[in-house]
Amino acid sequence: MIHLFINALAASAGGGLTYIRNLVPHIAGREGVKATVLLGARLGHELQASSNLTFVERNGCSNVALRFFEEQRIVRHLVRQCAADVLLSAGNFALLNSPVPQILLSRNSLYTSRDFYVDLRSRGDYRLWLDTQLKSEFARLSIQAADTVVAPSEAFAEELRRWTGNSVAAIHHGFDRGAFVSDQSPLSRDTQDKLDSGREGLRLLFVSHYNYYRNFETLIRALALIKRALAPRKVHLFLTCKLAAGENPGAYRTDFAAALVRELGLSQEVVELGTVPYQRLYHVYQAAHIYVTPAYAESFAHPLVEAMSSGLPVVASDLDVHREICGSAAVYFSRFSPQELAQRILEVDLSSELVSQLSQAGTKQVAKFSWKLHLDQILSLARRLADRAD
Length: 390
What we know:
The structure is a single chain. By secondary structure, this protein is an alpha/beta fold. The chain folds into two domains: about 1-175 and about 370-390, Glycogen Phosphorylase B (Rossmann fold); about 175-365, Glycogen Phosphorylase B (Rossmann fold). The protein contains 16 helices and 13 strands. The strands form two sheets. The chain has a seven-stranded parallel β-sheet with strand order 3-2-1-4-5-6-7, sandwiched between helices. The protein has a six-stranded parallel β-sheet with strand order 10-9-8-11-12-13, with helices on both faces. It is globular.
């Protein structure tokens, strides 16, 4: 029996939430494994305890420095209290001088992204620039402190190796199609009405809360070009966020993107669904024709796998991570070129043969991702570390 302590306190949005939502149910009932999971109140009501799972809920701290040092005290105490064998730190930051062997999951590509720092300076967002610099130092220190560091893709693992000079393993995050579509509850009436309002014409989808590195502005500019090229046929871009202050996690300002939508006359074409519960996201994928991601920084991108599993052709920015995850199931464009993005989308839209080709390739590509396999590999690492510590 191996006892894992999983620090998931930082899983509050995006990929972190997706990871814990999928990993924990696969631990439940797994023979020879016991887990204690530290998480925030947002996740507590979603996950079910089992005979081998124990949850500890605490409110996380939004201040990065306070969070880092607070977790040093709290996690160390809890790990000792529950007599865990291995610590799995799932939020980019490690426990310094851990009392047990530690696996650090590093998945934040912003710390190594030159594009992100350039973007922040161009927006004049120096507060977020300083905050990210501080976080990056904690992340670098964490990578040096952990016994084993795991990245969710080989492309991102290589970035971390270059950044720190440390050894980093690559273990893909997983996907479980059955679990993804298991909740048959309908979408809210408001969300369904918005989807129905865009039934005519070409339907594009981008699943993300608003942030700078997902490069919304390039997508919005491309949408204006697509609208012009397809006229009088309609086109709609569905977003799982709202371009309004206070509607997204983090400190990202939506005012520029919202102003761009108005300036380009796209208020009817951009459909802001807002946050869609993860369990019902598959309804949104099924309503779209093409999945698009213009992100300029990424470490895995769960929505790409979800889109491929839904049979959608993918148009993705030309990142090594995107090519690793999608392979031949996507067509790619230069990440800051709205002209090239528009061209790729139109090429897919105009070719049923290309759509079929991308969809079939996506079905094969999705088979490479498995939460069971991911957990098997994590447990293999954990057992080796525990045996070495004995």
